[in-house]
Amino acid sequence: MQRAVARIDLGAVRSNCARLKAELGEGPELCAVVKADGYGHGADRCAEAALAGGATRLAVATASEAEAIGRRLPHVPLLTMGALTPAELDTALAAGSEIAVWTRGFLELVAERARAQGRPARVHVKHDSGMGRLGSRAPEEVIGLLHACAASPDLEPAGVWTHLATADEPDSAFFAEQLDRFDRVAAMARAELPGVTVHAANSAAVFRDRRSHFDMARCGIAVYGLDPFQADPAECGLRPALSLRSYVADVKRFEPGDSAGYGQTWRAERSTCVGVLPLGYGDGVRRGLSNNAEVLVRGRRRPLVGTVSMDNVTIDLGPDTEVEPGDETVLIGSQGGEEIRAEELAARLGTINYEVTCGISARVPREEG
Ligand SMILES: *Cc1c(COP(=O)(O)O)cnc(C)c1O
């Protein structure tokens, strides 16, 4: 019995990476993205499982994430994808991470700090082909920055890359337009700087279009067995790795009119039994799920009733329940033949599966199993 626990099936992470490798075929490398504590799954163990499944590189967003991964897996090529302050740059370089660059000024700073640390920095020059966030929009600038890396004793041109804005939207023509723009940059880079790793694809792009694969794919969501298209992960041959579990702390009888939780947002319409689960939005069970979710107990779906509070939620077990205090409950995952997927909760909340698992708070231990 555990108050709240996220169980992580590392075998699923391994098999999802093998699935992605199969989709990529011969050639392109798989870079497993383990930012945001592995999308809430635990970065360290998921990184190791991803490597066992065929990933050969790792990527994170921030310097402190790079520090943690670099300490644990010092020999695996690691890319920090995000913008870095000067202090964060020092941290990322000290962690042995490769660095994302898209301006002259930052490239000069990277060279200076790499020289100070006594080791050349490996640089991935970013092209903004249409995401409209980080990256240089001008192809000549991207190629110029790569040449500047090649000319500096303190820098190595490691990669040229971009990020796709609509890979998960099958109807979007912008996906092909972005690929066309990046294709020209990639062709120039390959002609002028052979050996540079060209990369663009996220999880959705890997399944959507081989043309996006280039030399490497940066996959996050699919590594964890969540569906990049917000549908059923099984359609892409993926297995969800995370389940979120709690237990029934108490079962009590409700008479018609009795209410559960803050604001009396739910009242019993008949005599029934209500189960109390000792987890809530303090654990990442979002308040938007109030009267708007189901929970598995003894292999059956039961409605979440009343308002989700910080530390408790209530479920309607019906008038003649066999459920007893101590029974395991499943908020995400399977039990018996039933399953509640992160995609279902995301749809109920008007968000995406990414936000559901990233939102599981630090109060919830991540355990293998
Ligand atoms: C998070 C991220 C990815 C991974 O995207 P998924 O959709 O989770 O596969 C790839 N590239 C960049 C730049 C990212 O920030």
Q: How would a crystallographer describe the biggest sheet? A: 10 strands, mixed
Low-confidence stretches: none
How helical, in percent, are the residues?
25-40%
Number of helices: 11
Termini separation comes to 14 Å
Amount of beta strand: 25-35%
Let me know the number of strands: 20
Number of domains: 2
CATH-derived architecture of the largest domain = Alpha-Beta Barrel
Describe this structure in words.
The chain folds into two domains: 10-232, TIM Barrel (Alpha-Beta Barrel), CATH 3.20.20.10; 242-340, Lyase, Ornithine Decarboxylase, Chain A, domain 1. It is built from eleven helices and 20 strands. It has helices at residues 10-24, 35-39, 43-52, 63-72, 86-94, 104-117, 139-151, 174-192, 203-208, 342-349, 353-358, and strands at residues 4-8, 29-33, 57-60, 78-80, 98-101, 121-126, 155-161, 197-201, 216-219, 242-247, 250-254, 259-260, 266-267, 272-277, 294-297, 300-305, 313-318, 328-335, 338-340, 366-368. Helix 9 links the parallel strand 8 and strand 9. The longest helix has 19 residues, at 174-192. It is elongated. The two termini are 14 Å apart. The model has no long low-confidence stretch (mean pLDDT 98).
